[in-house]
Amino acid sequence: MSKVRATNRRSWLRRGFATASSLALGASMVALAAPANAAGCSVDYQVNSWGSGFTASVTITNLGSALSNWTLEWDFPGNQQVTNLWNGSYSQSGQHVSVDNAPYNGSVGEGGTVNFGFNGSYSGSNDIPTSFSLNGVTCDGSVDPDPPTDPTDPPTDPTDPPTDPTDPPTDPTDPPTDPGERVDNPFVGAQGYVNPVWSAKAAAEPGGSAVANESTAVWLDRIGAIEGNDSATTGSMGLRDHLDEAVAQADGDPLVIQVVIYNLPGRDCAALASNGELGPEEIDRYKNEYIDPIADIMSDYAQYDNLRIVNIIEIDSLPNLVTNTTDNAGGTELCDQMKANGNYVNGVGYALATLGDIPNAYNYVDAAHHGWIGWDTNFGPSAEIFYEAANASGATVDDVHGFIANTANYSALEEPYLDVNGTVNGQMIRQSDWVDWNQYVDELSFAQDLRQELVSVGFNSDIGMLIDTSRNGWGGPERPTGPSSATDLNTYVEESRIDRRFNPGNWCNQAGAGLGERPTAAPEPGIDAYVWAKPPGESDGASEYIENDEGKGFDEMCDPAYGGNARNGNSPSGALPNAPISGHWFSAQFQELLANAYPPL
Ligand code: BGC
């Protein structure tokens, strides 16, 4: 299957979010929403061709104000002919195609997406259309704050009274309308914050300047990081320094800064590489010395209503309570303790409630990845525990803007040559050693389904997902270029999968991994953005014990010689050798990520 992506994601990537940076949302003082009649769009056109026929999936992102009906038009570059179309109605004349909404999908809010699909025939080459227009406006990712009125609109009634010239002009010092209102998808129409500390390290690497201007998250991985403690991980910049710098980078336009909240009591209960500074019972210190000061600082920036603070809440914590207590193979007593004392649930609830009070902050809760909670037995229970945390310590579901999958992990975004519902020689792909009955083989399908599950357990229906694509590219010479022709199930899966890990449970400094999709806003339905939450080049953990004052232990999963345990199917760890402790710069890993980037750099 060839998946071609045609979009207007050209080079708008000033700092990160591809659909974003060229957008001017009108008067920046009131930049929370597009002007009432603004128009703009981007189109994601994916096609799967098989010689004479093809299927296309088209996703429109509305970057302008809300629409109540839409028409998308394009010209095919060749002799393609639409044969049938769903989620809309079409007409084709020569190369020109026009698609109108179906009766049920005409309404698309600001930042919203709508998808339709069609089958087509062609001969020769199946090149993708180069330009689309939505209701007459070219979809190039920009927003026209004042598009021309439809010439077929009835003229204004000439008897309308003229505007009273004595009307008082709007007071420029008026507070923006409803500053407490969050936008649906904070990544749309916003550039992404470039962390100068990470950027300098990336730029100093050979070849690193190609990505040094990407947006990566700021990790507050200990109390000292709030003020900036000159440590190897955070450098000298504290939270306030980053927010000041973000205001400067924003320069009056919308900007997203991602902050990882990562300091729970008894952190990383199933692994050791990222154990933290707070003991399992130190929930009060978490609240008083960590979350409260962060909230105080962020609140000082609430007046910058074009600064969108995305808080990524507590990586790998809640899923540990589902899968890594000792009633599971390979579970740990620390996870038992964290489940019994409630400090993960209450800590996450406290973070959500406290940070959720900041009008320009958006909370996204960590939701592990498909290779962790993609099995039926873990999927539903994880959604339940997220819901419990979202209602703990004064939090409500309104404090949750969305969830993030794959933070600091390596799971592929899409496995183009592996259909989890398929069979080989009469055997289900799901029963292969690699898939091992998981419901998913990749993150995009997992994140989209998990979103539905979360809504069904009680989260708001407009939550959005983020996927960390910082290290899930799986390019380079080892990447398969098509499905295997083997008839043996396991050989087929091994030869078809792009994820080259020994086991999907492997998580430490993976050999063969590459940079994944560059940060992109609204890439797929239900997905608010692809982000680089884990800054590429920062270690997941030391390959042998290294003394440190950060509370970090040594986890054998980071030792390349380790043969594995129950949690990774007793497979080799696949880790790169000579790694420093987690969070510290690991040049060899950064080089590996550049070499295996996919899409290639
Ligand atoms: C480490 C943190 C670090 C983060 C980002 C985590 O594994 O424990 O110290 O800030 O990765 O690199």
From TrEMBL:
Disordered, as annotated region: 133-190
First and last residue of the signal peptide: 1-33
Catalytic activity, EC: 3.2.1.-
GO biological process, one term: cellulose catabolic process
Biased composition (Pro residues): 145-178
GO MF terms, alphabetically ordered: hydrolase activity, hydrolyzing O-glycosyl compounds; polysaccharide binding
PROSITE patterns per the UniProt record, alphabetical: CBM2, GLYCOSYL_HYDROL_F6_1, TAT
Keywords associated with the record: Carbohydrate metabolism, Cellulose degradation, Glycosidase, Hydrolase, Polysaccharide degradation, Signal
SMART domains in the record: CBD_II
Pfam families noted in UniProt: CBM_2 (PF00553), Glyco_hydro_6 (PF01341)
Gene3D superfamilies attached to this UniProt entry: 1, 4-beta cellobiohydrolase, 2.60.40.290
Family affiliation: Belongs to the glycosyl hydrolase family 6.
Name by which UniProt lists this protein: Glucanase
